[in-house]
Amino acid sequence: MKNVNRRSMLFRAMALGAVSTLPGCDYEDPAHPDIADKFLHAMSAWNDRVQEALFDPHTLAPTFRADQITNPPRFNAFYDISQVPVVDPATYQLELGGQIQDKSPWTLAALNALAQTSQITRLTCVEGWRVIGEWEGVPLGDFLRRIGADTTCRYVSFKCADGYYSSIDMPSALHPQTILALKFLGAPLTPPFGAPVRLRIPTKLGFKNPKSIMQLAVTNIYPGGYWEDQGYNWFSGS
Amino acid sequence: MPLLDMPPGAIGFAFIASGFIASVFFAAGAMVSCDMLLLMLPGVIVLPPMALLLMELVLCASAAPELSSKAQTAAEKMRDFMGKSPDYMAGQAPARAVCPAMGNTGQCSLGINSMPGRNPAPGAACAGDETRGSVMAEKKPKRRVIHPWPLRLTHWLNALAIVMMIGSGWQIYDASPLFAFTFPPLITIGQWLGAAIAWHLAFMWLLAVNGLVYFIWSAASGHFAKFFPLSPRAVWRDFTAALSFKLPHETGVYNAVQKLLYLGVLFAGVVIVISGLAIWKPVQLWFFTDLCGGYVIARYVHFFAMTAIAGFFVVHLLLVAMVPKVLPPMITGGRIEP
């Protein structure tokens, strides 16, 4: 009797071990998806649709008091802080592409001359931690309308100085709290935190806030993203 | 000979044998490719239950004549019992003319006789009865299923969902630990954060939809009545009895500790879904986040709900290992034999 119990326990432990090794092969090679990858992709696409339906353009991300700001801010990137690219603000130009009427590039001074808005919001990382910061910049919706972007397009995509790239859905781009941030805590952005221009979108996870943006495009062709192409959920709304 | 009366050794052997075959297939699949590995999963889940089901079919078919005669004599005995003690029936179960559980199995009388110190509660046994109807009207009593199929289906789907959710959840936890420890990668699901989140957000649908089906079915079928009545005294009585190994397992009836454990894990299930939504959508579903005390606290709530469920999981498996005869009915449905 005792023996049988021990053996059945052993079997159960084996079964548990077998199950836990099962998803060990997922997203190893994005170019050659196996059946597990295909299943996860399908579920991720389904989750994108659910989040699009769940997104309410009038629901604002929570705002915080100045004394709740995380200081010093937390650096995070797919490389070490010593590798951060430095963009010269004097020669910086934001290039525009895709379904935009006026594609002439924007200098930092021109962006600074636009009406600004400020927010103290929470940046939630996909890893689980969060920081609170104060960002100031141009509402992306205002900017898109000013440059004559086709706001019926599905995506707004970004390419960064460090090779990072990402994209967001148009309804989220037009959300009032989505800004092209130029300042952090009242001072111009520093290179580790996205100088000279970064996206600040508190209705999405941290990795959907690309830093040091060099190109902005409006498109109907799915642009993907650095992490998204490796398996992170594309919409990643909060 | 029906499966329930089989020596535990035979049940154990059937399980180990089918489990071994499944494991060999599984290991072979793992060596070939990941695709194969996933294809093998249904085999691992389906093979042992299939083996048990087959065994039960063969055994029951060969033992059928003996069974029906057994059933008849039991029914006759019951009739005698009921006829001889009308006062008892009137006093204990006034609302029910015939308690199906009693009529069918004699469970109630058994429970009372074997446990003199216990409150006789035939009403509780009746309340959870799935197949209502008078046994007395039939010549051959219908054998009662211990676990109806919706319960078994949701149970095993939930088992799969819980393993996947906790395994991937541990990997997600490791990306930003709340405490001074991390889970070893060997026991987590998904080799990196992106994969773990993908598994987590895929299987959350199974957990939630399956849980919803269970709740709706339980409410509609009267299954929830099995959890009540429940008093702290009864819990303490059964708990101390269980610790001294004096608590008998009554087939088809939950003891007070079981009731508390099951209600507790159901509550933890609700908490884990709400706190999960609070973490997943703190902007759009802000009311869940507020309910959990904010985003940061919601992560702790989610973690402790996981701890509760994992703790239940361990106790649950230990109890099954102690009383192995309860395992086959969760697969085949089982029968309460007359």
UniProtKB/TrEMBL annotation, chain A:
Protein name according to UniProt: Oxidoreductase molybdopterin-binding protein
InterPro entries according to UniProt: OxRdtase_Mopterin-bd_dom, OxRdtase_Mopterin-bd_sf
Domain Oxidoreductase molybdopterin-binding: 83-227
Domain of life, per lineage: Bacteria
TrEMBL record, chain B:
KW Ribosomal protein (keyword) present: no
Domain annotation Cytochrome b561 bacterial/Ni-hydrogenase: ranges: 147-333
Compartments it resides in: Cell membrane
UniProt keyword Transmembrane helix, yes or no: yes
Gene3D superfamilies: Transmembrane di-heme cytochromes, Chain C
One Pfam family it belongs to: Ni_hydr_CYTB
InterPro entries to which the protein is assigned, alphabetical: Cyt_b561_bac/Ni-Hgenase (IPR011577), Di-haem_cyt_TM (IPR016174), Hydrogenase_cytochrome (IPR051542)
Transmembrane segments: 12-32, 38-60, 153-173, 193-217, 260-280, 300-323
Chief place where the protein resides: membrane
Protein topology in the membrane: Multi-pass membrane protein
Keyword set, alphabetical order: Cell membrane, Membrane, Transmembrane, Transmembrane helix
Protein name: Cytochrome b561 bacterial/Ni-hydrogenase domain-containing protein
Lineage: Bacteria, Pseudomonadati, Pseudomonadota, Alphaproteobacteria, Acetobacterales
